[in-house]
Amino acid sequence: MPKNILLLMTDQQRFDQVGYYNGSGRAALTPNIDRIAAHAHFTSCQTTNPICTPARTSLITGRYSRQIGTLTMSGDLFPQIPTFMQALQGAGYKTYGIGKFHYMQTYPWSTPRGCGMDPVAGEADEKRFGYDFIWETAGKQQVVGNYCFYGDYLNKKGMLGAVRDFFVECGGVNGDTADHNYDKALPWPFAEEDYIDVVTGRVARRQLEAHPAERPFFMKVSFCGPHKPYDAPRRYLDMFPLERKDDFLLPDGQTLTEAEKEALYRQRRSAKAMIRLIDDQIGELLAVLERRDLLRETLILFVSDHGDMLGDHYMIQKGVPWRQAMNVPLAAWLPGAEAVGRRACPVELHDVAATILDYAGLDPQKALSRGWPAYNDRIPCRSFLPVLEGRAERHRDFAYSESDYSEERHEGTDFSQVLRKRGGGGRRSNAWRSVVTERGKYIRYLGYGLGEDAYEEYYDLEKDPGETVNRIGDPAYAALVEEARRRERYVVDHYPPAQMTWATACAAERHII
Length: 513
Fold this sequence. Notes:
Elements: E1 4-11, H1 31-37, E2 40-46, H2 52-61, E3 75-76, H3 84-90, E4 94-100, E5 104-105, H4 123-127, E6 133-137, H5 149-156, H6 160-171, H7 196-210, E7 217-226, H8 234-237, H9 258-291, E8 298-304, H10 323-326, E9 327-333, E10 341-343, E11 347-348, H11 351-359, H12 364-368, H13 385-388, E12 399-404, H14 415-421, E13 431-436, E14 440-445, E15 456-460, H15 478-494
Parallel strand pairs: 1-7, 1-8, 2-10, 2-11, 4-6, 4-7
Antiparallel strand pairs: 2-9, 3-5, 8-9, 12-13, 13-14, 14-15
Helix pairs in contact: 7-9
């Protein structure tokens, strides 16, 4: 019997925006995601890096972003790094990549409109990551500069220029703090059938319908919502009232103006609507699996790449070590197994790669390693399949995350003021490392000078889930802090960047042996 795998992803969705999460008014209505989560869902899945490209490249390679040269959203994933999709291809799977990839950020953000990446022309190159079929979306903002398969769809309908104009009108520039929040939360003004996540779902359904039942498949369906621009179609916006609930988490004396709150209220509403739309698309995918009698032989995973601050800690977007950016929803449906329900054990985002390979009967360490050059055999991802099967309570003791959010430092921004608004005496730099357990979170900021000590924070997540009281100097937490420091050093020391090769000249070609 084929062991199929369906990986469902969203973009920039925080942990508390799903229906199965109790304790927040931020959740959307997500009956289909909840159906997947009924088997298992994890409350402490940490992205390995809360930025799109680093998180997504970490996920498919099973490595930390520090190992593969993707600490920030700049540059491309090197094609020499093995991916789990390549391993599945070698095991006889047909592999599909549908929706947002963002494994490559070749061009700077200042690249003129329409002059960026062209995945349609570069289809063969994109398939090298391990896909037999691709239909790639660059992302909503990125369709302005790039020409992806969604852009090609729009172009063939004569809509590309108008949609690009709309995304620019929405406020396409990324912000950092609540006073640099440029998104207008405008509703999608075109036909719902042409909305990016509706088209993505339709492409995925057609491929599922056509797939030969006797061959195992891996399909990644990666939606672009609820990432900004917050552009939900009107029908979905109308499902949610505009709630002016002033419950923003502002622990460092920060305050939001009424205008800043109003913008965030509108964005919260649109995010809920986008997630509901995605949930409907997921429901239709599940219906195809049921109709074809494939549900009972398909592992289904639902996850996001990172979260969204949405005003908490006076921040918007991502790239910071707060829970709203690091903690992502993770739900799993394992066919033929008893439900295990809620699990609070730490998970790292790239553990998805190990779990997929384990389910397919492959050894993640062997599948993702290379024997040469050095450090290509350091594979940190771990399978949580034993947890899904009920054979284990946990598969790791802590989760590591890191980032260097250089995107913030764009022209015209006084970065010192950004740091000041973050709190922490202006010492919360954009570069940091973090260790998370069920009990606590340790953060080490890397923006210190020679002769200075790094700024550190430790939060008791059991007593202080909002991460509001820094316990780094509290003697009662000294042992936990030192344990976290050891773990952070261990990861950095044992998982260095993989060495790469590029030279092509070969002496054997001289035929002198």
